[in-house]
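Q: Could you fold this chain for me?
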Amino acid sequence: MPQTLIRNATLLTMDATNGSKPFAGDLLIEAGRISAIGKDLAAAPDAIVIDGRNRLVMPGLVNAHTHSSETFFRGRYEGLPLEIWLLYAYPLLMGPVVNERLLYLRSLLLAMESLRNGVTTICDDFFDPPSHDLTRLSTVFKAYEDAGIRANVSSAVMNVHTLDALPYAREIMPLHLQEKLDFGSPMSAATYIDYCRSAFASLHGKAGRLNFMIAPSAPQRCTPELLQACHELAVEMAVPLHTHILETKTQAVTGHEFFGKSLIAYMGDLGALSRNTTIAHSVWVSDEDIAMMGEARCSVAHNAVSNQKLGAGIAPVRRLIDAGVIIGLGTDGVSSNDTARIFDVMRTAGLIHSVSGPDYDRWIHADEILAMATIGGARSAMLENITGSLEAGKAADLLILDLTTLNFTPLNDIAKHLVFAENGSSIEMVMVAGQIVVRDGRMQMIDAASVLAEIRELVPAHLTAHGELEKRNAVFHSTMAEIHRRATDKVIGLHRYAGDAAS
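A: Sure. Below is the predicted structure, expressed as C-alpha cells.
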C-alpha cells in the first residue's frame, strides 16, 4: 500500500498537546498508520496526495455503546420506558432466531450507517438469545470485516431469570403468566467463560481491527460468580467488561431492593469495578457511586439520545467528569435512538446539560463533547493506544470534512460547529486503518445499493413475524407498567430527579 499524504489541511488531532484546537499542517499515512504530522512533510514519489485546502481532518468518531440486534427496528417504537419497550424489542416469549443472512445484513446495515456518518469504531453489545453460538458471532464479525469498520463485539450474557432481576415482578405478575416464562437452565459462569475463551481464540483481532469484549448484561441480571468471572477474564485479556448499570428509575431501586445497596456499590463489593469496566448509561448514580467509579477509573458510555427517548433521565456527566470517570458517547441501539449517528448524540449532549442549573460554568462544553466522541470513546473501549486521536503511530482512523459547506459557513469555532451545526453531511472521506471506506458518501468496500435492496426484499417478512411476537408479549405489558410506576414513586425518595441532577 503506497503512502498517503494529506497536505495543507486543517487538523484537529484531539491529542494531549493540541486537544480540540485546530492547526494547519500535513498528515502522512503509511501501512495503515499515521507516520507523521507536521508542515511540509516529505512523501515517497508514488504517494497518494490529497489536497487538504478548505478541509478538516479529524479522528473518526467512536460509538461507545450500541446494539446491532435492534437495527431492523428503526422507527418502530415510541412513548415507552425501558422495561415496557424491552417486551417488544427483546421479547420474553421469543420466536425463531433471525437467520444468518439477515443477521449478516443487520450488522452490515449498522456498519454502513455508522461509517457514512463518521463513526469509525463501534462497541456492539451484541445480544443473541437464547444461546451463544460462535458461528453466529462470526457472522457479525464478517459483516464488520466486509464493511471496513473497527469494532468491539460482545456476546452479551445474563443468567438470572428476568422476573428475579426486576423489583416487584414476582409480586405483581400473575402466576399463570410467570409460568409462561420458562427459559430452561441458566448458563453457568464456567460455561460462559469457556465460550468467551473460544471467541478470543477464533475471532479476537480479526482483520486487525475487530475484537471480542465481555458483556454481562447488568449486575442484577447475572449471578455474582458470573460477574466476577467476567471481570477476571476482561482484566486477563485487556478488554472491556461492558455492562448496563442504573439506566432507569426501576434500576435505581433495584440494588436497594435486592442487595441493600446501589448497583454500583454491589459491583464494587464484587471487585468488578476497575479500569476495564465500561458502564452504559449511569443515569441514577449517587455521589457515593460516582466517587467509587472515579476511584476505579471506570468508563461511562453516555447515551444522551436514547436516555431521553426511553424517559430514563439525564446522566450527571459533569459530576462524573469531576470524579475522574472516563466518558464516551453512545447511540445505544437503533430502536431506542433511531439513528447510529454520533453527531446527533454530540448535539443532544451539548444541549441537555444546560438545563442542569443556573451555574453555566458547569455546563458541558463543545471541546469536552468532542473529546467524549473521540478519545474518550476510545478509552472506554480500551483502544486509546490505537484510535481516538491523530498521533504518529496510531491507526489512520480519520474523517475529512468540507469546510465550505453550509454547516461551517461562516466559520467561527470548529469545535462548536462540529457539536452544534454538523450532522455528518460535510464528510467527504472516511478512513479506517488507512483504508478509504467512504468517499463522497459512497461505501467503498461493499455495494451499498444491493445491500439495501436485499434488506427491503427480505426484512418485511421478518418484521411481520416480529409483530406476532409483539402481540404475544403484550400480556406482560401491565406488569411492566406497574413495576415502572412503583419504582418511579419510590425513586424520588432515593435520588433527586435525574433532570435536576444533571450537572
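A (continued): The chain has 17 helices and 17 strands.
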